[in-house]
Write a structure and sequence with these properties.
Blueprint lengths: L11 E5 L2 E8 L7 E4 L11 H8 L4 E4 L15 H14 L5 E6 L1 H12 L4 E7 L14 H7 L6 H8 L4 H14 L12 H15 L16 E6 L7 H10 L3 E6 L6 H4 L1 H12 L1
Parallel strand pairs: 3-4, 3-5, 5-6, 6-7, 7-8
Antiparallel strand pairs: 1-2, 2-4
Length: 280
């Protein structure tokens, strides 16, 4: 029997509260499934197959499109609080009583909210390339990053600029990622719409409005947390990850060298090993 991989996992659908959620499941083992929450405008295919397959080698992994994004129906959230509630609804629709949760970038924003408002749902939390509500440097992105992130027809060059450090070595790793990311040729997910892009950027801006008191929310995250980040993220300042590590009571942090926003796509094998060890 052939093993289901990120490249071959069928897209499935589950309905809840008038939304048809698109998702994929693969892998087995582990105490609880690992749910992955995607980055800004990302869909099921925007995950790195090397990362997903390495995680799925040790546990069940579930990928999902937010409502109104790619193949999921419904209205895209304009706040992170709403996005978190949508993902809680999705886990309930799949009858998942407890999960491990990995949130990347905007997915990490939603993951923090989920851990705060459904503490019993989240067993362990992984926050990758993300930052806390109201922290310094979080109120939108610098102009060059925003231009590439909000391109009407995103290209590989846009991803390389945002996700990888502007060094020859990191950019070379980025090009390897692009090759993996395009490897699935059948049953690819629908590209995200411009409406979902704009809704998500509203959510990014609302989350990042300077608010020092909002940082205290992090002290309420009860589950063990692993924070993953590149040493030079141009999109969400790396210092924000150190801030989260200092405020979340049971947190550890792993910084990957010569890496920017998508350290988990630059070092998929190393990140999967670190995540699997943490979840185990």
């Amino acid at each position: 029997m052939s093993t289901v991989t990120h490249r071959t996992a069928p897209t499935q659908f589950v309905e809840a509260e008038g939304v048809r959620y698109a998702y994929r499941r693969l892998g087995s083992g582990g105490e609880v499934p690992l749910v992955l929450l995607q980055h800004f405008t990302g869909n099921l295919d925007n995950w790195d197959p090397a990362l997903v397959d390495a995680l799925a080698a040790e546990r069940e992994v579930i990928l999902v499109d937010y409502p109104g994004v790619a193949s999921s129906t419904g209205t895209p959230a304009t706040t992170i609080a709403e996005m978190a509630q949508q993902m809680i609804t999705f886990t309930a629709a799949l009858k998942l009583e407890q999960i491990d949760l990995l949130g990347f970038s905007i997915g990490g924003f939603a993951a923090q909210d989920m851990a705060l408002i459904r503490p019993r749902l989240i067993r362990r939390l992984v926050l990758a390339g993300t930052g806390p509500k109201g922290a310094p440097g979080m109120h939108g992105w610098r102009k060059d990053i925003e231009t590439h992130a909000r391109a009407e027809v995103p290209t590989g060059g846009d991803l390389l600029y945002i996700f990888f450090a502007h060094t020859d070595t990191s950019q070379a790793k980025g090009k390897e990622f692009l090759g993996r990311f395009m490897a699935r040729t059948e049953g690819r997910d629908t590209p995200s719409s411009l409406a979902s892009r704009d809704a998500q950027y509203d959510a990014v801006l609302e989350w990042g409005i300077p608010n020092h008191s909002a940082l205290q929310r992090l002290t309420g995250i009860q589950c063990p947390t692993l924070i993953i980040q590149g040493d030079g993220d141009l999109m969400i300042p790396t210092k924000a990850s150190h801030l989260m590590a200092g405020l979340i009571p049971d947190a550890r942090i792993r910084i990957y060298p010569d890496a920017a926003h998508a350290s988990l796509f630059q070092y998929p094998a190393e990140v999967a090993k670190d995540v699997n060890e943490f979840l185990a």
